[in-house]
Amino acid sequence: MLHYDFMQRAFCAGGIIALMASALGVYLLLRRQALMADMLSHVSLAGVAAGACLGFNPTIAGFIAAVIGAIAVEVVRRAYKTYSELSVAIIMVGGLSVAMILMSLNKTMNKSFSSYLFGSVVAVTRTELIYMSAAAIVGTVFFLFLRRPLYLMAFDEESAKTSGVPVQWISLGFSIVTGMIVAASMPIVGVLLVSSLIILPAALSIRIATSFTSAILAAMGIGLIGTGTGLTASYELNTPPGGTIALVLLLFLVSGLSLKKMFVWIGSKRASKAKAKPTNMEVANT
Amino acid sequence: MLLASLQDVSFGYGDVPCLEHATIEIHTGEFIAVTGPNGAAKSTLLKLALGLLKPWQGSAALSACNREGEKLTIGYVPQQIASFNSGFPSRVAEFVRSGLYGHRNWLGNLKPEEKEAADEAMRGTGTWELRDRRIGELSGGQKQRICIARSLAMSPDLYVLDEPTTGMDADSRIRFYSLMREQIDRFGRTVVIVTHNLSELESMLDRVVTLERREEGGWKCCTTTLCNGHFAPVESLR
């Protein structure tokens, strides 16, 4: 499998994106912005469609659209402070409707669009790999340098602000990095499943991890293994990579949560048994 | 030294005014309680003073520096902070230490004295035994206490605490009020607290700001200065 050039690129791109997307997912979940990745993927699709219509590189257009969408969501979020999820809904509707109209205008691009929608390992070109690497470098620098302010902001933006954190700028930067990572993930998992790569590893890691750093590292590990397994299964079974990766990550989540519940149940059983069993001292007394 | 002030400030949400012509001043070394019925805009008053909300009219000012000319540090405990996501993957010690991240420490490890300050804050609030627990596993009162420990770890110039004793038992509340009084008396810090239990801490306070309903609508500030002999000019503390 790995002697194919496209599979090497797919594993390389999948690995980079899995690491970035999973770390991003932890922050998105804790900031209650789980749907943001989904929304930005739809906006990015509108950019891809616009790029195709205007004869501009669709990948770059998708990147630019995702970044603009991320800035827009931040602006709308500030306008609707009490209903921050409204910003996601408004921009998602805008992105999807523009994408649909532009796609209907450009019928020659149907095949390529389906690879954007559902993901395709063949779709990963060398240029896209370079974009992904660039997004990964920006993301790594962002999360490494700002992990502490982001931790404070995940709890409460107002107290973070009074602690001297420039919340508005970091929030804007966070949205832009999210846009970049979402746009970079699209060739692998596709528009419709991009949030699976971001949300599912994070959803499992925050349930099993005991500290913030371990949650991020666990999410990255789960994302990496899930993507590798999904790509291998996709190659062997000839199934769409996006759907296969999402399904593998979903299985990881379900089995991980079940195992955790089982361990908790066994632990509580042991504890209650130990309580019920009389100690040597109690036996001697009786 | 004047740390924060509101001069003739009016504010509301949407088109509905909730606070009208409020004027207060917060000086270094004061212990101030803000009180009033539910919906009297007590939290709003604090947010206006901290610059988190912009007044419709009037002026709000927050000093940029403390008495030593360094950046003013604020330990703000909002009303809902203890209702954080119960699944948040963080331990109590990590959470309390995050108070030190602020504007001065985004990279690198915390210094030993900073770690000691966080440990001291946990001991002072009775949360030392909880330090290895996940924060989501704590009760409401315990969550409230770790939020206070976090702001204590910062050693801020100004504490702004919005109903910080919610969910705490009576003993913990009294210990907490004494701890705050000690912060003022020993270190010359300033404490502003929103509370409904005025009788419990009245003897420790310097001033009470009561929000009262105006006849023509909205709420106004009435300040009562108490003569408990606590308030001393900051200069004398040094």
What is the strand and helix layout of this fold?
The complex is a heterodimer of chains A (286) and B (238).
Chain A: H1 5-30, H2 36-54, H3 58-79, H4 84-105, H5 110-118, H6 126-145, H7 147-155, H8 157-162, H9 167-189, H10 194-208, H11 212-237, H12 241-276, H13 280-285
Chain B: E1 2-13, E2 16-27, E3 31-35, H1 42-50, E4 57-62, E5 74-77, H2 92-97, H3 112-124, H4 140-153, E6 158-162, H5 170-187, E7 190-194, H6 198-201, E8 207-213, E9 219-225, H7 234-237
Parallel strand pairs in B: 3-7, 3-8, 5-6, 6-7
Antiparallel strand pairs in B: 1-2, 1-4, 8-9
Q: In short, what is this structure?
A:
With 286 residues, chain A is mainly α.
What can you see in these coordinates?
The complex is a heterodimer of chains A (about 290) and B (about 240). Chain A has a domain at about 5-195: ABC transporter involved in vitamin B12 uptake, BtuC. Chain A has 13 helices and no strands. Chain A has helices at about 5-30, 35-55, 60-80, 85-105, 110-120, 125-145, 145-155, 155-160, 165-190, 195-210, 210-235, 240-275, 280-285. In chain A, helix 6 (about 125-145) packs antiparallel against helix 9 (about 165-190). Helices cover about 30% and strands about 25% of the residues of chain B. Chain B has 7 helices and 9 strands; from the N terminus they run βββαββαααβαβαββα. Chain B has helices at about 40-50, 90-95, 110-125, 140-155, 170-185, 200, 235, and strands at about 1-15, 15-25, 30-35, 55-60, 75, 160, 190-195, 205-215, 220-225. In chain B, the strands form 2 sheets. Chain B has a 6-stranded mixed beta sheet, with helices on both faces. Chain B has a 3-stranded antiparallel beta sheet with strand order 2-1-4. In chain B, strand 8 and strand 9 (about 220-225) form a beta hairpin. Classes of the chains: A mainly alpha (about 290), B alpha/beta (about 240). At the A-B interface, helix 7, helix 8, helix 10 and helix 11 of A face strand 5 of B.
